[in-house]
């Protein structure tokens, strides 16, 4: 009886190992993108209302999915999928024996991420100062945005179809990081935060504020896309497949990283 019980426990442990390993991996990924204490959300205080840049998730139609499944290379480009959804090619009833190829362009087909990192001090946006060198008592200072500041992200090198590539990279980053991401974010003038910083007597305080951003790096796969017609059958053919490395900076909206120094 004990022999069978021990075997059952061992079997359960073996089954649970991959699940536990996956859970540990997920926890590790979450900790990697955890917001540090010196980074604060200013969405409520921001005097400039940022619009979210949620990307449209385009689901392939039944026919589009069938066409995509018939290709060796993955097709994830939402604009290409949308175009395929809206395309209607119906071979003629008398098309027996007909063969034809319709070229629909060279497209970025998919983006594969190699590395995702966050630079919490991507761009300096503000400096507040308090001179207490001649003072006798401790004073308090706070963050106040002196001027309106727009922070823009961008691709790190030139590439064909940059708008399509930026969309795919943003979708990949949003899938990994539960923070508001956009290629442009604005911090409004006179934006303030209640957190205070103490400047002792005979000291000079300096509070630097930074906009954080995600650095996404990976590879884009390109290919020439054709509709192929063979009688009543339709399919997609992809030719001349190439890959290109690409990187992008994507700002994190309505978040500010603070660095306080005494001199």
TrEMBL record:
<dbReference type="InterPro" id="IPR025548">
    <property type="entry name" value="YfkD"/>
</dbReference>
<dbReference type="Pfam" id="PF14167">
    <property type="entry name" value="YfkD"/>
</dbReference>
<protein>
    <submittedName>
        <fullName>YfkD-like protein</fullName>
    </submittedName>
</protein>
